[in-house]
Write a structure and sequence with these properties.
By secondary structure, the protein is an alpha+beta fold. About 45% of the residues lie in helices and about 15% in strands.
């Protein structure tokens, strides 16, 4: 059984969307993905045996894959060396991502950040799939 990469990526994005408590589970037997949110209505009920780890696996969040501050600081080191201390200061307080985006816009590095982040996300998520025996198409 293999799962389309776009389906894995879409579920991963759903898990990390907004401030909500979203989750997505992959059925190891069928490749079906089950979506769940703590806010609003769910379109489908989760299977009764969703806690069976042999049958289902919860998709990770960006935090689970360490794609937060560590990734930002790696990008700052590689692409914003002259602003590294400023980035470190930005991430020492709340609201960091908004201020980081402002810095990226001001320095003309926003597109570089998006490409860097997307590549790191894909690499980490594909590694997670491989580690968890999830075969991916595409």
């Amino acid at each position: 059984m293999s799962v389309a990469w776009d389906d894995i990526l879409t579920a991963f994005e759903f898990v990390g969307a907004g401030d909500s408590d979203n989750s997505a589970y992959l059925c190891r037997e069928t490749g079906a993905i089950f979506w769940h949110t703590e806010i609003g209505d769910n379109f489908e009920e989760l299977p009764d045996d969703i806690d069976d780890e042999a049958k289902y696996i919860a998709l990770p969040s960006a935090r689970d894959l360490d794609l937060g501050k560590r990734l930002v600081m790696l990008f700052a080191d590689e692409e914003l060396a002259d602003h590294y201390d400023e980035v470190a200061q930005i991430f020492s307080r709340r609201g960091a991502y908004r201020r980081f985006r402002d810095l990226l816009t001001r320095t003309g590095a926003l597109d570089k950040w998006y490409a860097f982040e997307a590549a790191a996300k894909e690499k980490a998520l594909r590694e997670w799939c491989a580690e968890n025996g999830v075969a991916v198409e595409g």
